[in-house]
Write a structure and sequence with these properties.
about 400 residues; alpha/beta; 12 strands; globular
Length: about 400
């Protein structure tokens, strides 16, 4: 397995030299300044690749190995007439990436929002900070702040009661903070109460779809891009829904093993694969991650390794735990991924979200992407891999 690290470009507080010191060699990044639906020009890709791979004298080499992400335009996800235009742009971007030797693309097909957390700075007993999803706080936002039609039908009475108490205890400032956090996963929006109508509009666009119709739109997309991906030698790894269950009345189609099997069977292709985001899938107690890693091993092209811990009092809520702690048997997952490496396959993984800790508590950091917490996670994962190497 090859050690990767997510980098958000030249403005990332974590520098390329920081990544070298962590020992990772594979950079996972994107052209974040280019909006979904816009072409990634070859010159822009080459510029970013040069930033990463032009190695100062005496430094270790880094390689741009994985793109995370090239987002399909909403017209593709919604099956609108203009999707033909946007899929050609997506394909041309893929061709440009292939020209510079980048052959793994992580993408998602999540509707409207790409990830959801209620707290980006949750205090742990250790004094470190973590990302957290609290289902009752989310319900308070959905029912009393967003005021989504039919929102109450998404929660049981106990959750609604807790949500009511939470909402009544929020100040105006806290309402704005909750809103800002929960709309942050909407691409192109800075979040906050002033963008709530934009958030509502985007949800309304996607609320017209059920799971079957949304699956049909994904199948249409894959039928057009996968033949080109095969021709170019590019592997596409779809990222799971985050969190992997129905949210805000939106369809979720990448949440369970059955969902993954459907994707592979709907459009069979050597380039049709999975980004195994262990922490995301692990939010569901019915997702057996070691078994999923075994079952889909030959289709896992990229991996995010971290663990989550569900609340004992409310299993719909969770924190992002230490990378090899929490509810997931990460050692067994890593064993399965190592077993999947055959016929020259070498999976790139990255330590996913890390705890904010030590000196990073005093710095501005990208939520989940502080340097020290991920460094700790990478060291733990590296230790597990080394043990299996010594045993073999």
């Amino acid at each position: 397995m090859r050690e990767g690290w997510r980098w958000f470009g030249p403005d990332d507080p974590v520098s390329l030299d920081d990544i070298r010191q962590a020992g990772a060699t594979e950079i996972v990044t994107s052209l974040h300044h280019i909006k979904p639906g816009k072409l990634w020009p070859l010159a822009e890709i080459e510029k970013r690749k040069a930033q990463i791979e032009t190695t100062p004298e005496g430094r270790s080499n880094l390689f741009w190995s994985v793109v995370e992400s090239v987002h399909p335009h909403d017209a593709i996800k919604q099956g609108l007439p203009e999707r033909d235009y946007y899929v050609e742009i997506w394909i041309e971007t893929m061709r440009n990436l292939a020209k510079v030797g980048i052959n793994t693309i992580c993408y998602n097909f999540m509707p409207a929002i790409y990830w959801t957390r209620t707290d980006l700075n949750y205090l742990l007993p250790t004094g470190a900070r973590s990302l957290r999803y609290d289902n009752s706080t989310f319900a308070a936002f959905d029912v009393f702040i967003l005021k989504r039609d039919g929102a109450r039908n998404s929660y049981d009475l106990e959750t609604l009661d807790r949500a009511d108490r939470i909402f009544r205890g929020l100040s105006d400032f806290e309402i704005d903070q909750v809103t800002r956090t929960l709309t942050a996963g909407l691409p192109g929006s800075p979040g906050g109460s002033e963008n709530l109508n934009l958030f509502r509009d985007k949800l309304e666009e996607f609320s017209r779809f059920d799971k079957d119709s949304y699956r049909r739109n994904l199948k249409w997309f894959l039928e057009r891009v996968l033949p080109v991906a095969e021709e170019l030698g590019i592997k596409l790894g779809i990222h799971p829904d985050d969190p992997p269950r129905p949210l805000l009345g939106l369809p979720r189609i990448v949440s369970t093993p059955d969902d993954i099997r459907w994707i592979f069977e709907a459009v069979p292709s050597s380039s049709n694969g999975l980004t195994l985001c262990v922490g995301t899938f692990g939010v569901r107690s019915d997702n057996n991650l070691p078994e999923m890693a075994k079952q889909f091993g030959d289709k896992i092209f990229f991996a995010h390794l971290r663990s989550t811990a569900r609340d004992k009092s409310d299993p719909e809520s969770f924190i992002e735990a230490g990378h090899i702690d929490g509810d997931i048997d990460m050692v067994a997952v890593i064993r399965a991924l190592l077993d999947a490496e055959k016929d020259g396959k070498n999976i790139v993984f990255r330590p996913d979200h890390g705890h904010r800790m030590l000196g990073d508590l005093k710095k501005d950091v990208t939520p989940g992407y502080s340097a020290i917490g991920r460094l700790r996670g990478l060291a733990e994962i590296r230790g597990v891999i080394k043990c299996f190497e010594w045993m073999s």
